[in-house]
Amino acid sequence: MLRLSSLPLSLVVFFYCLLCLPLLSNANKDFFTVYDLKVEGDYIDCVIDDLNGDGLNDGLFFHSVRNAGKVTRFFSVFYQDKQGVNQQADYRFEIAPQAVVYDVADVDPGPGKEILFFEDKGLFYYKMVDGGYDATPVLLFETPSIFKLPDQVFLERLDFARDLNRDGVEEIMIPQFHQYVIYSKQSAGTYAISATLDCPVQNSIKSLMGVSRTLISTFLTPNTIIFDYNRDQRNDIVTVHDNYLKIFFQNNAGEFSNTDAAVVHFDFDLTQAYSSISGPGQLHERDRLKDKIGITSLTDLNNDGLLDMIIEKFSMKDGALNPKKQFQIYFGRQNLENPHQGGIFNNVPDHIIINRGLQIYSKIGDLNNDGKMDIYIPIIEIGVLNFISMLVTGDIEVTVLWYVMDDSGRYRIKPDFELGVTFELDTKGRKFPVSNIDGDYNGDGRKDFLRSQNGKLMIHYAPDDGVPKETADVEFEIEIPDNGLMVSPGMVNADSKSDVIMIFVPTVGTEEKGKVKILVTS
Amino acid sequence: MTQLKTLIKIELEKIIRKKTTFWIAFIILAIQIAAAFFEHSERMASDDLGTGFQVAVFSLKICLQLLALILLVLSSMTLSEEIATGTAKLILVRGVKRRDFILGKFIALVYVSTVLVVFYHLVGILLGHFLGGLVAIREGEFLLFSAADLFKGFFGGMFLTLCAVVALVALGCFVSILIKGSGGAVGTGLVIYFFMQILSQMDLFQKYLFTNYLFLPIDNMAKLSEGIYVDWARYFWWTVGVSSASALAFLLLSILLFNKRDVWH
Q1: Cβ–Cβ gap A397/B140 under 8 Å
Q2: Using CA atoms, how far apart are residues B237 and B260, in angstroms rounded to an integer?
Q3: Which end of chain B is least crowded, N or C, by CB within 10 Å?
Q4: What is the pLDDT of residues B31-85, one digit of tens each?
Q5: Which uninterrupted H or E stretch holds B250?
Q6: Residue A28 contacts by C-beta under 8 Å, 6 or more apart in sequence?
């Protein structure tokens, strides 16, 4: 009797469990409030900032629209109010055809922030009038710069307006061919040159084999980092050159000069353009097969106030199918001969990490919230059958290696944690997975791990015990851009939780125009 | 016990008496030396001299892949040949237990395999010493691994390889009982071996197959010789555990099968 009744009972339990499965998963439909913004265009870029000064962050979207063969560049502005963000832009306006690079800063006494851009003649801006940007450019000041010719389809953003001396007013840094010129705001509200810093721009010229084009000429500005290099509580300007760092120290008056500068030499040469540009055999790549050296990170890793450096060395000595990448970590040390000049680096790295597999898109971030930077390296181990399985299923097994800095400020020789995750990859290689550790989605002050899998955004919260979990804390089903790099965290609403901005640019396979989704944490 | 010792001794004498065994060992040695010189010249051509460990590992990897096949063929033939030719009857008629008969062959083969694996590792080290030098691995002035670390890894890897080789020999013995006729046994052994190698590439199965651990130590050694950290502890227990379990399972199955096999007709 008992046996007979156990069968239907088992079936009931089985189906009940089956129905409960979705409840048991971490899928959370209400985690984000999704705003679908209509931003039509081939290329889209965005800035999230409080444009109108109402205390809420707004969205400024650059987009270029192709119509009957003609490309027009636009700015669309989405204001945020207490109800959120509108689907349609509040307004859009055409960008001056001669605009080369832009930034957002407060340079005008009027309300809100201005959109600054360089033209051949000098620096212009769009002023906010009656709560909206006036499409007529206003000249801020005339100046020569390296920005002569605009890109026809895109408008690049460059962070050239920065508050260098922490007085609440942004200075303008202008790259010229042989120097950086800094303009500061005067008491009268006008801008004047406050420093001219020797800092050469490089040019890389490559000849082409194609008939339609002959040369590619690229100006290379040194990367510029604002950092208190000598620990005197004042920001300094650090510029990165081929084989040295040049530091311009800020003096007591909040000014910079060539006399107050120091040079820190490296024992290696950085590759001019670290990322290799491999075209369909049209480009003469003189150093394509040579070892490439680039800087992955230039920041204070061990929280000692001195700048540290992670060098990435990429080698194809063992063949193009067996590339090798290594990370060389140099910790900044106090310059004992000139203590006021901040840190120097040893010739020999303090630590080297060489890993197995193909390494992709490494980053640094504070995994365990101890104020020290940990290293995050996703790797793909390629075996013959792994490769076939990758092609068949479209999934790729990625192991994320975490190197956690210990209490002594060092990394261990082996990774502290390995997290196995699956990423989607299409057979044509047009997909790039979402993978970043820059956002804090639960507002606990620690960076969380955001990734994508099977059409879902997955969030792994920074664990309390510092040990990463393979199971995601949040799974949110949503359309994800093919290029995962276009998914980034940002602070859109006023809470302390990160939100997500997703930009969809048209690909070869899609006919549709671009669009933007903003995911606000509920 | 004495009977088993005698059987092992007889089996070893049989193997040693075979000239082909020596010829095969010699050919593998020649290939190993050629591979070492090839790797050395390749590195010289690309100005990347590396260290002798890289040369040793490269030559050894090729040599071990060949050796694995040869050992599988030898072990697959060992019983099937004796059953086919009737020599098994002559031994069993003298009161030798079937279990001891198999164990004797298996232990003799393990003994020969161990000698060969150790021999080729030593040759690899010697080749590395002369073609590059067995020195520490450095990146510029940064010491990645000392020579002592590399030696430890090399000989630790050799031990782990031996564990997996024992399982391979046990597989060969099992196949030699399973299939009648030495040709069929060798063919079946090779098919099973390659099938297991394919499965070893799959994430789902690889952990549980001894074939995954056959070349894993030498692959790890190759990583170590290029400056990549290898967590040996992570692989140690799996290699020893899976290899021992596989060897034991194949041996037990072999004994069970052989006990049921009619060798008299």
Answers
A1: no
A2: 34
A3: C
A4: 999 999 998 888 777 666 678 899 999 999 999 999 999 999 999 988 887 777 7
A5: helix B232-260
A6: A474, A475, A476
Question: Mutate which of A293, A325, A326, A418 to disrupt the B interface (most B C-beta within 10 Å)?
Answer: A326
Please give the order of strands across the beta sheet that includes A171-175. A161-162, A171-175, A179-185, A191-198
Residues A169 and A108: their CA atoms lie apart, in Å, by 11
Identity of the residue in B46, B144, B202 whose CB atom sits nearest the CB atom of A352: B144
- Give the pLDDT of residue A322: 66
Tokens of A80: 């945020």
How many whole angstroms separate alpha carbon B151 and alpha carbon B126? 12
Ranges of chain B whose pLDDT falls below 70? 1, 46-49, 263-265
Residues 6+ apart with CB under 8 A from A388: none
Judge whether A98 is closer than 8 Å to chain B, CB to CB: no
Give the Cα separation of A288 and A316 in Å (integer). 9
Q: Give me the residue from A352, A385, A414 closest to B139, CB to CB.
A: A352
Closest to B257 measured CA to CA, from B182, B149, B200, B174 = B174
Contact assessment for residue B176 and residue B76, using Cβ atoms and an 8 Å cutoff = yes
B-chain residue closest to A347, CA distance: B141
B196: distance to nearest CA of chain A, Å? 13
Rounded to two decimals, what is the model's pTM? 0.79
Task: Say yes or no for a CB contact (<8 Å) between B203 and A347.
Answer: no
- DSSP state, residue A339: G
